[in-house]
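INSTRUCTION: Work out how this chain folds

Fields: amino acid sequence; protein backbone structure tokens

Chain under study, with its fold:
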Amino acid sequence: MRAVQYRTIGSEPEVVEVETPEPGPGQIRLRVTAAGLCHSDAFVMSLTEEQYVYGLPLTLGHEGAGVVDALGDGVTGVAVGDSVAVYGPWGCGLCHACARGAENYCPRAAELGIRPPGLGAPGALAEYVIVDDVRHVVPLGDLDPVANVSLTDAGLTPYHAIVSSLDALPAGSTAVVIGAGGLGHVGIQILRAITGATVVALDVNEEKLKLASEVGAHAVLPSDSSAVEAIRSLTDGDGAQAVFDFVGAPPTLDIARKTVAMDGVVQIVGISGGLMPTGFFSTPMGASVRAPYWGTRTELMEVLDLARAGQVHVEVERYSLDEAPAAYRKLHEGTIRGRAVVVPGD
């Protein structure tokens, strides 16, 4: 089969021929119908040889959807032909976190060598992918896999951050979204769907600010030195009850720190290397700072339900497997509007 692999530190991913995998006991093989590209992939491929821990060659793609193609011994609960999405943050399945569906916070995964598809295990940027357990697939039903595969991360991650901040977001509150790209434009829609907050979106890119307005932001602002004063002005000096930074770079974290209200919350979702000092004389009194990771299996099901209800959609640019390296270049350049999705059948 064909797959998109990261094979050499510092080089672009390549489209290669590899052996089609066979499912072992308890495993499921999917014929991939769609796979999303993510800035996390770019982050992984930017690591130096000393920092890189994901193994080579690595088949990329931690956002995956497919049709069940083959079942290993002992698999129940799914049937050949089912359309499913892959729940990516795999855990041990036995600890307290996994028992409540929060495998994204499994404390044993790292020590057991369990890694997500595309981030250690072979990912979905291929014609076929192996899923290690039936609990790691969620039914898609009649949802279009190409239009919705990105919800497995670009929807689930902001949803998880927003749900954990719901107490801060009643009617009359303000939520700031920093970065209106792949995750941010979905986060805006989720905020509009499940909270009473006024949503203010920031970005450095005019096209992404336009997208933010189209998907429901009440106000859009350039993410520059004027942002702090502008947000304070919009909130009568109080600041925002919740700030979601989908960039995570030093300048955006500084905006988040200076615009969050007292007793508010900052959710640092982006992984651009920034760190935020917190405590007295840095963040407002009572403000909390959180670095959420992915989301729970139940939350993925809820995000897909929002899509079925027409309350959330992803702006998608479609590519073939052969076009995946070029799509990664566009992702790195910041010229993708929304999310890039690779369709192996194209």
Observations:
- The chain is about 25% helix and 25% strand.
